[in-house]
Amino acid sequence: MTSKKKYYLLILVVVAALIATIFVYKNKEKYISTTIAISDTILNITAQTTEKKMYDLVASITNEINRMDNILNPYNTNSEIAIINKKSLENKEDVLRIEVSEDMAHLFETGLRYSKINPSFDISVRPLIELWGFGVKENQTVPKREEIESALKKIDYSKVSIITNNGKKFIELRDNLTFDFGSYGKGYIVTKLIDVFKNYNIKNYLIDYGGDTYANGVNSKGNPWVIAIRNPRNDEDGYLGLIQATNYTIVTSGDYERFFTENGTNYHHIIDAKIGYPTYNAMSATIVHTNAEEADALSTTAFLMGTNFFTNENYNYREAYIVDSNGDLYIATNESF
Q: 80-90 and 51-72 helices cross at what angle (nearest 10)?
């Protein structure tokens, strides 16, 4: 073999080795983190996977979030819930029956269940959200009392029914009600993202979707994931405590997330559907649960109720952390959960 042929052969060997190295690197599992901004919400994920699978995972997650946005986002005029709200407002009959998707039926079932336990949590609260300026217009100001009284007349979860007929799901509305799933919609989306991870057979991962967190498996050190509970008032401390989580979701509702100030008073976005005003029974409420949708609904409920939440036996959770209106922290743990 001539020296020239040996030279070309050496080049081929080196190139083949480089290709093999790149292939192994891209297909080697490691902990990878990425951030996605989609539907006005930031999604942070960390997962033990390959670069190729992460690329495909992000595409699937994006598709799933877009799919859910077309179901439950009331500000998306083409979404299923926006169309339901429009039909409801335009209806002039005593009863309006609308066929809904399985996802929408599930969302109504969850919302009605929590509304029945505590009417302050009412899925037909949307008129108040818009009135206070936390809706589409974001024109935040304290409404007049007569405006609140008028909005309260348009809120009544008891005028909603879910019906199954020939395998199809319907909702029946007996008033011109409008709906908003902001109190637990993000949690439901997280449950759908968990399904995406399962489809890719990824076992160790962390999801943070706009503050709704789910931790599965272990972190890069082989330990449970560590989730911080934010201090609702003292940014210097940063957090109230740290939770070690494996296969748990942690969700917090707080008065610091969305609010405006008028005449020296802060008015936040979590409105009590019974009285028409923001509630001040707590500064924040954090729930640890196995289901993100339940945790989201429970954190809103706990925030609305304050420490009275602990006395209600209808609510099931692993842990609850409530900072009351005085800034005192209360913790409850259910060892049998």
A: 0
Superfamily of domain 27-73+188-333: ApbE-like domains (3.10.520.10)
Binding residues for Mg(2+) are 183, 296, 300
Q: Tell me if residue 40 falls in helix, strand or coil.
A: coil
The pair phi, psi for residue 84, each rounded to 5°, is: -60, -45
**Residue 73 pLDDT more than 60?**
yes
Q: Does residue 133 come out as left (phi exceeding 0), alpha (psi in the -120 to 50 range) or beta? A: left
Contact 178, 157 (CB under 8 A): no
* Sole residue written with tokens 């942690």: 250
d(CA 49, CA 45): 12
Q: Which residues are annotated as a binding site?
A: 183, 296, 300
Compute the distance between CA of residue 327 and CA of residue 111 in angstroms, rounded to an integer.
29
Residues of the chain with CATH 3.10.520.10: 27-73+188-333
Averaged pLDDT for residues 198-204: 97
| Overall residue count recorded for the chain in this entry | 337
Which DSSP state fits 231? P
Give pLDDT tens digits for 86-129. 999 999 999 999 999 999 999 999 999 999 999 999 999 999 99
Tokens describing residue 159: 């005028």
CB distance 241 to 229 below 8 Å:
yes
CATH topology for 82-173 is: T-fold (1.10.3980)
Burial grade of 34 (CB within 10 A; 0-12, 13-18, 19 or more): middle
Angstrom CA distances, 184 to 57, 87, 122, 221, stand at 24, 23, 12, 32
How many angstroms separate the CA atoms of 94 and 109, rounded?
22
**From-to residues of CATH 1.10.3980.10 in the chain:** 82-173
